[in-house]
Amino acid sequence: MSADDTSETEHGEGTAGEGTGRDVRERIEREADRAREGFDESVVDLLSWILDTETRARIYVHLRQHPQSTSEEVAEGTGLYPSTVREALAELHEEGKVTRRKRESGGAGNNPYEYSAIAPSDLVGEIVEDVQDQLNTVCNLDGYLDGESDDDEPVTITVEDESDE
User: Fold this and answer.
1) CA distances from 150 to 140, 143, 154 (A)
2) What is the residue extent of each domain of the chain?
């Protein structure tokens, strides 16, 4: 840094560079937001396949981001109709993909349920079990059709959680 550079900055002539720095920061933040939105959409697409519908996927993502939410809070956070959210939450709870408990409050009145989504590794574990069962059925199809079987061992799929390593 030269003496001339120092004097320009000290006298306020370097403020144009600060504006450029601010512009760069804002552009980076916009790009990060856009990337995050694209990533979120990719996650929703994948979860739509796993959870059968985009509605259920959006609810799952919301519950991972905001655990212990009521159906009303989920509807507000996802932009879905409250009746749609209640129906999907009931199905997801019945399938064990979300948990629920009564919200505790000090006052009298109806305490709504709070919902939380199971961990993604648990969700994937359930999917792996389903796929494994289907693969076993396909592999054993000859035995069912012919009355004999070449393979005595079922297909096994092992999933390791990276956090365990």
Assistant:
1) 8, 7, 11
2) 3-118, 119-165
Tokens of 130: 């389903």
What is the model's pLDDT at position 95? 93
Among the ranges given (26-30, 81-85, 110-114), the one the predictor scored with the smallest mean pLDDT = 26-30
Range 3-118 classified under CATH 1.10.10.10: yes
What pLDDT score does 19 carry?
A: 61
Rounded Cα gap, residues 141 and 151, in angstroms: 11
Closest by alpha carbon to 66, among 113, 101, 106, 114? 114
Radius of gyration of the chain (CA): 26
